[in-house]
From TrEMBL:
InterPro entries: eEFSec_C (IPR049394), eEFSec_III (IPR049393), EF-Tu_GTPase (IPR050055), EFTu-like_2 (IPR004161), P-loop_NTPase (IPR027417), Small_GTP-bd (IPR005225), T_Tr_GTP-bd_dom (IPR000795), Transl_B-barrel_sf (IPR009000)
GO molecular function: GTP binding; GTPase activity; translation elongation factor activity
GO cellular component, one term: cytoplasm
Pfam families for the chain: eEFSec_4th, euk_SelB_III, GTP_EFTU, GTP_EFTU_D2
Function: Translation factor required for the incorporation of the rare amino acid selenocysteine encoded by UGA codons. Replaces the eRF1-eRF3-GTP ternary complex for the insertion of selenocysteine directed by the UGA codon. Insertion of selenocysteine at UGA codons is mediated by SECISBP2 and EEFSEC: SECISBP2 (1) specifically binds the SECIS sequence once the 80S ribosome encounters an in-frame UGA codon and (2) contacts the RPS27A/eS31 of the 40S ribosome before ribosome stalling.
Catalysed reactions, as listed in the record: GTP + H2O = GDP + phosphate + H(+)
Cofactors that this protein relies on: Mn(2+); Mg(2+)
Protein name: Selenocysteine-specific elongation factor
Key words of the record: Cytoplasm, GTP-binding, Hydrolase, Methylation, Nucleotide-binding, Nucleus, Phosphoprotein, Protein biosynthesis
GO biological process, one term: selenocysteine incorporation
Lineage summary: Eukaryota, Metazoa, Chordata, Craniata, Vertebrata
Protein's cellular compartments: Cytoplasm; Nucleus
Tr-type G domain ranges (all copies): 5-202
């Protein structure tokens, strides 16, 4: 039996020009199809435009089990150019261990910070690599490295990578033009650190086969090869696989892993799958899967968290670049939270409960956001109460194909690339996709998100002990009929019910089932007498002071809720 090979995917992330590709080249022993800036436009611009993959094989370290075997690090060289961040997000979903490459002469830069954010969302372990130490003058090199190491430790203090290894290297001493004979510095030490950080990623061959394809090309006489990383399940020779974006199904004719033919591959493996009669131009990157296992959706409900480094509020109705699966599309968001009484309730993970009521929010609630009206009422102590979980409805500008429960990242990629600011706004999990194009009619009415409405008016006069006439609650043109039967409260404490319109100017009649209190009646009778008196002749001083008394009118308060997606726009009172 062949010695086992354990594959660990290592993402090489960092700011543009921090030397990621040179580092991947110094580490690798086997280049794969996409490695080392093969793309002509990449070479011309001297930057990585797409995910490059290569591998490094080494003996299996003792912590990963007894017996012979090899540890294969698949190095995923992610582009550092800001406009290519969507490619990085696509790559981060397949990474077990991250190498954050920092130019030792520059320290943390904008995209290094964004890469760190992506790492925190998508990755469990990290190694920081301080590159280009050959640019430091030799007599000051050690102290400069120590200084930068301390700085990085401080930066990582409040992240999940606190205390991670930091290694100093020069991947390509002398820079890109230097002769190949120049040996890299510190790379063998880095390989030892990577081995010490390697772990058995949890891999599961069961479930539907799903693979993220990042390159597609044809080989004469063989067919079309799709290379990528298996995200879930497994694949064998002869299996049928679907390319859902094109609604095409093909049979697997042959497979290779880093130039070695194989008959089987599973989650976490990097593999080339060969099929026949398929034009590679149709699929540059995307997903392939077990037939009918993915869904194409027009909208989705996600649970989400704001990314702490994003400046500014997350507003309902705003548009974001939404990365789902391996696609990035524009989408509009609507945020909502539990009803305030349930803010502290534990929420079941990865499940959305359609039976519950949810409160519409103008923006994602965070410490720095303005709390909604309803929260202010709950918030006597002055401390904003935040819900344990918040959700969003995403509506995509064009449909996306993705697995269920996949990672979702919202960003503002149109922010100026050179602005020193994090463009990643939120991350979450897709809980429910809407496959029907007419989801607004067929699906959204099931979503019980409500807005709390609060209207105020005034009592104009008393009719008798059990009824009053109100005004200023409705506009003249409002159809008062739809409000008949709703409960109101007077500022003097009585409960009333709207009984119908009164005249043509938006006034209305309120029935008070328990009758008006004597004090209220006196107050209202006095006020209306003063009014009628005030109409005759000039105001006396006495009238003026009484006008100030009646400046405290009896107000009418109407509170109800209305479900955002209720086609009948019913008003509901608890």
């Amino acid at each position: 039996m062949a010695a086992r090979v354990l594959n660990v995917n290592v993402g090489v992330l960092g700011h543009i020009d921090s030397g990621k590709t040179a580092l991947a080249r110094a580490l690798s022993t086997t280049g794969s199809t996409a490695a080392f800036d093969r793309a002509p436009q990449s070479r011309a611009r001297g930057i990585t435009l797409d995910l490059g993959f290569s591998c490094l094989r080494t003996a299996l370290p003792p912590q990963l089990g007894p017996g012979p075997g090899e540890l294969q690090f698949t190095l995923v060289d992610c582009p550092g150019h800001a406009s290519l961040i969507r490619t990085i997000i696509g790559g981060a979903q397949i990474i077990d261990l991250m190498m954050l490459v920092i130019d030792v002469t520059k320290g943390m830069q904008t995209q290094s910070a964004e890469c760190l954010v992506i790492g925190q969302i998508a990755c469990q372990k990290m190694v920081v690599v301080l590159n280009k130490i050959d640019l430091l003058p030799e007599e000051k090199r050690q102290s400069a490295i120590e200084k930068m190491t301390k700085k990085m430790q401080k930066t990582l203090e409040n992240t999940k990578f606190s205390g991670c290894p930091i290694v100093a290297v020069a991947a390509k001493p002398g820079g890109p033009e230097a002769p190949e004979s120049e040996n890299p510095l510190g790379v063998s030490e880095l390989i030892e650190v990577l081995k010490s950080q390697a772990y058995l990623p949890s891999r599961d061959p069961s479930g539907h086969f799903l693979m993220a394809v990042d390159h597609c090309f044809s080989i004469k006489g063989q067919g079309t090869v799709m290379t990528g990383t298996i995200l879930s399940g497994s694949v064998s020779l002869g299996d049928n696989v679907e390319i859902p974006a094109l609604k095409v199904t093909k049979k697997v004719k042959s497979m290779q892993m880093f130039h070695t033919p194989v008959t089987y591959a599973m989650q976490g493996d990097r593999v080339g799958v060969c099929v026949t009669q398929f034009d590679p131009k149709l699929l540059e990157r995307g997903l392939i899967c077990t037939p009918d296992s993915l869904h194409t959706i027009h909208a989705a409900i996600i649970s989400l968290k704001k990314i702490q480094y994003f400046r500014g509020a997350l507003q309902t109705k705003a548009k974001f670049h939404i990365t789902v699966g391996h696609e990035t599309v524009m989408g509009r968001v609507m945020f909502f939270s539990p009803a305030p009484a349930n803010f502290n309730e534990e929420v079941q993970e990865n499940v959305f409960d359609f039976e519950k009521d949810y409160l519409y929010q103008e923006e994602y609630l965070s410490k720095d956001s303005v709390s909604s009206e309803e929260n202010k009422e709950n918030d006597q102590a002055g401390e904003v109460q935040l819900p344990k979980q918040q959700w969003a409805l995403l509506e995509f500008e064009k449909p996306v194909t993705c697995p269920k429960l996949c990672l979702v990242i919202g960003s503002k990629l149109d922010t100026d690339i050179h602005a020193n600011t994090c463009r990643l706004a939120f991350h979450g999990v897709l809980l429910q996709g809407m496959e029907d194009k007419n989801y607004a009619e067929t699906f959204l009415p099931k979503l019980k998100v409500y807005k709390q409405k609060h209207k105020e008016g005034q009592v104009e006069r008393v009719m008798d002990d059990y009824s009053v006439i109100g005004r200023s609650l409705f506009k003249k043109e409002t159809n008062i009929q739809i409000f008949v039967g709703l409960k109101v409260k007077l500022s003097t404490g009585e409960d009333g019910i709207i009984d119908g319109g009164f005249g043509q100017s938006g006034k209305f009649k309120i029935r008070i089932p328990d009758g008006l209190k004597p004090d209220t009646k006196m107050l209202l009778t006095a006020a209306s007498k003063k009014k009628s008196k005030g109409g005759k002749g000039d105001m006396t001083k006495e009238d003026e002071s009484s006008k100030n008394d009646s400046a405290q009118p009896v107000t009418i308060s109407l509170i109800f809720k209305r479900y955002v997606f209720d086609t009948q726009k019913k008003m509901i009172q608890s």
